[in-house]
Amino acid sequence: MTALALNAASLQYDNGFTALRDITAEFMRGSFTALVGPSGCGKSSLLRLLAGLEPPSTGSVSGLAQSDIGFVFQEPTLLAWRSVADNITLPLKIEGHSQNEIAARLAEALQLVGLADFADALPRQLSGGMKMRVSLARALAKRPPVLLMDEPFAALDELTRFRLDDDLRAIWQQQNCTIVFVTHSVTEAAYLAERALVMQDGQLKSAIAIDQTGRADNFRSAPNYMAACAELSKALGHEAGTG
Amino acid sequence: MRYLTPVLLGMALLALWEIWVSAASIPVFILPPPSAIGAALVDNFASLMAALWVTVKVTAAAFFWAAVSAIGLAIIFTRARLIEMALYPYVVTLQVTPVVAIAPLILIWVGFDNVSRALVIIAWIVAFFPMLTNTVQGLRSIDPQLHDLMRLSGANWWQRLCYLEMPAALPSILTGAKISGGLALIGAVVAEFVAGSGASTGLAWRIIEAGNRLEIATMFASLALLSALGIVLFYLLSFCEWLLLHRWHESFRRG
User: What is the SS3 assignment for B206-252?
Assistant: First the structure.
């Protein structure tokens, strides 16, 4: 089953800049796809198209209603005056769920991201990694069938990122959702996803399936993970040994 | 120390003033000593308080309407670019034309039936603009990703206003309010000056009246009350700012 699809979609902004050209891609239900490419290649624009935040200039996007999409931005994008709990529940409140439902989903989301003890904290009291977890919890609380993530961990230190990568994998397996994850990091893409779409200059360059054997053990030292990294680097135009 | 030092300095300066005035035998109708000003304040206490109340009412009404109209217009400006383009030059015109020059017209148009309404309108003109520009600035500086978040949550315009725009713009609105509060008082004083005899009974009018009668001590007493009113207004608004922002806003973070 296809969860999201782009059919010859392109996107031109009002200032005339063409961000995406003729993109055709399918995202299967329950899949984990990474979108990789250098800065300015159109990855974020593609995600905005999928989220319905921008309409395609030509072509079409078929997917879900905005209420079925959980979106995680590059920055935590929290409301500084609302507590962690109030940030997470805001979209639910806007959607008009009952108090009981909201409380249950809040508890569940806090549990998923490991912030159960910080429900009453204000964003400014949290570290960068914790803020990102709140942002993730806010997206998860909607129980979205599709999770779109725009370089969510790019600004974090490497150890925090590794931990959040693992947590995200666990959440994905538990929730059975479709994830599209934008990143400029080859290693992050190879570690997280089952498939990586490589983008350049607003176009899809290639789709690379990532061999999942060795997932049960330490995947970061698995040979097929290394091979996926090498293949992705090559697809991005890096010569072996220089990137 | 933060409160003690300015109080001590003030007392020292008052003492110096008192001694200097009597030592140099400066006539009371040029510069009265602080003791005479204090006496004038006590002697005319009831009438000065009544005058203060008139000025407080004009200032408060002008400030209230400035806040309501500025925030309302700022919301319209940020939602409808066309309205902003059409209206903005006139708002600027209203701001840059000296209010003393417009005041007589307003008094003629409105002042015949209702002087205090004319005074409020004049003070409102003075107080309105900083509140408007600060609110517009605050609404415009909201992170576009937060707007995306509201869109993805399916928020309607009212929810967007309550959950995002008003709280996000609040620090800028309150900065504007602190400036507008002071300006509302200045506007009220200017309006009373222009309105002149018989029409107004506020503190500014007491200053003119006392000046005409060479009751310089009463003039100083009224002046002191005006300053006190301005200071109270400023700290009241600063307190509101602290109350609303200290929990979350960066400006209240201890260094």
Answer: HHHHHHHCCCHHHHHHHHHHHHHHHHHHHHHHHHHHHHHHCCCCHHH
Check CB contact of B152 with chain A, cutoff 8 Å.
yes
Min Cα–Cα distance to chain A from B13, Å: 44
Task: Report CA torsion sign: B224, B227, B233, B238.
Answer: negative
Q: Tokens for B79?
A: 């939602």
ipTM given for this complex? 0.89
Residue B88 touches partner A, C-beta closer than 8 Å:
no
- Residues with Cβ within 8 Å of residue B202, at least 6 apart in sequence: B51, B52, B54, B55, B58, B119, B188, B189, B192
Mutate to test the interface with B, among A68, A73, A86 (most CBs of B within 10 A): A73
Which residue shows structure tokens 């999942």? Answer: A212
- How far, CA to CA in Å, does A36 sit from each of A29, A166, A195, A202, A230? 20, 19, 10, 12, 13
- So what's the pLDDT on residue B255? 45
pTM of the shown model: 0.86
**Which residue is associated with the tokens 């010569």?**
A239
How large is the average pLDDT for residues B93-114? 87
Which tens digits make up the pLDDT trace of A3-26?
Answer: 899 999 999 998 889 999 999 999
Strand partners, A198: A36, A206
Cα distances (Å, whole numbers) of residue B207 to A90, B198, B200, B203: 55, 14, 12, 6
Is B155 in CB contact (< 8 Å) with chain A?
A: yes
Q: A95: Cβ–Cβ under 8 A, 6 or more apart, which residues?
A: A67, A142, B153, B154
Comparing CB atoms, the residue among A53, A66, A75 nearest residue B154 is A66
Query: B149 vs A91: CB contact, 8 Å cut-off?
Result: yes
**Alpha-helix runs per DSSP H in chain A:** 43-51, 84-95, 99-113, 128-141, 158-175, 186-192, 223-235
Q: What confidence tier does B112 reach under pLDDT thresholds 50, 70, 90?
A: confident
pLDDT digits 0-9 by tens, B39-76: 999 999 999 999 999 999 999 999 999 999 999 999 99
C-alpha torsion sign, points B225, B226, B227, B231 = positive
